[in-house]
Structure formats: structure tokens, C-alpha cells
Amino acid sequence: MREKIIHKSLGLFLSLGFKSVTMDDIAHEMGISKKTIYVHFANKTKLVEAVTFRLFDTICSGIDTIADKAINPIQELYDVKMFVMHHLKNEQSSPQYQLEKYYPKIYETLKTKQFDKMHDSVLDSLEKGVNTGLFRDSINIDFISRMYFSGMSGIKNEQLFPSKLYAMDVRMENYLEYHLRAIVTNKGLQILNKFITSNQ
Question: What is the pLDDT of residues 92-129, one digit of tens each?
Fold first, then answer.
């Protein structure tokens, strides 16, 4: 039952927002009593925490699989983007913004976990790119990895990039191209241009 509650809550939180969805809403959607939810989660904060970290673990696992199978680091980044967008396909409520506003402790813990994961993942990807001649060998890999995380966090800021002006897939698409154009070699640029053309 715990897994079913997490699964149902995840869909509701992403589509309606962490603030909007109540324990009553979740119970009603599942056809169970609110008491049943409280057997597994002491309060809504504990449920939000479980849902948030479950989604994080799912996305991390997917990113690792993509990295292992990717033909090159440029395709890897695009595949990761598509995978993340698939898992956030119902994201209509700016969940990161709501998480930061209403559950700041969970948000800070998640941000630390995200940085650790993304930093390691992007470092590996950048090293592969340099070693295969797709990325310039003069780049500071650690610095670029940190910049990438900073940019990906920044485009999720609802105040800077209101969703009514920039849908999340548009933000990610543009940032990915911006990031890659700054580091690719001529060889890498040819591959990048193919991906941009195929995604239009």
C-alpha cells in the first residue's frame, strides 16, 4: 500500500502542486481512508519527502542506464533530457518552486543530492567528450560541470522563467544547446547540429 500511495501522490503532486493536493485528495483518488495513508506516513511532509526522493532515485537510475548505453556524450545529454521530461510530463505546477517555498528543508536536501549526482554524471560525460574529440580539451571539466548544474537549476526558477512564457521542454532544449555550443569541437558541432535539426 505504501508504494501505491507514493505512486498516486507523485502524479497528483506533479500535476496539481505540492501545496494544492491534500491528504483528503489522495485518499479520495485512491478510494481509501485518510487513516490508511497515516499508517504509512505520519504527516503530509513525510509523504512529500518520500515522493520527492523516490522520483529522484528513479531519475538517477535512468540517467545511469542512459550513460552506459550512449553512443557519445552529446546524444547522452539529449537522451537524459528526453528521459527527465518523460518523468515530469505532468509537471504543470512548478513543483521545484513549490517545494522550495513550502518544504524548504526537503528542497535543500534534494538540491544537495541533485548536485552530487549531476556533478559526478556530468564530469564523466565531459571527460568522455574530451577523450573522443567532441569537446574541447582546454575546458575546465570541474568548472563546466558546476556551471551546468547552476544553469539547469536556474531554468527551473519560475520567477526567472515563467512557465506561461517558457515551457519546461523549451527551457531545457535551449539550455542544452547553449551549454554544448560553448564546449564542442568542430567534430562535436556536426553531431550537435544533427540533433538540433532532428528535434525541430
Answer: 556 777 888 899 999 999 999 999 999 999 999 999 99
The answer to whether residue 180 is domain-embedded is yes
List the grid coordinates of 102.
513550502
CATH code at 174?
1.10.357.10
Q: Over the stretch 118-128, which tens digit does the pLDDT of each residue have?
A: 999 999 999 99
Instruction: Give the span between the Cα atoms of 187 and 133, in whole angstroms.
Output: 7
Report the distance separating Cα 168 and Cα 164, nearest Å: 10
Q: What is the pTM of this model?
A: 0.81
For residue 28, tell me if it sits in a domain.
Answer: no
**For the chain, how many structural domains are there in total?**
1
C-alpha cell at 143: 568548472
* Backbone Cα Rg of the chain: 19
Alpha helices in the chain (DSSP H): 2-16, 23-30, 34-40, 44-69, 73-87, 95-102, 104-131, 141-154, 168-181, 186-198
State how far the Cα of 188 lies from the Cα of 32, in Å rounded to an integer. Answer: 54
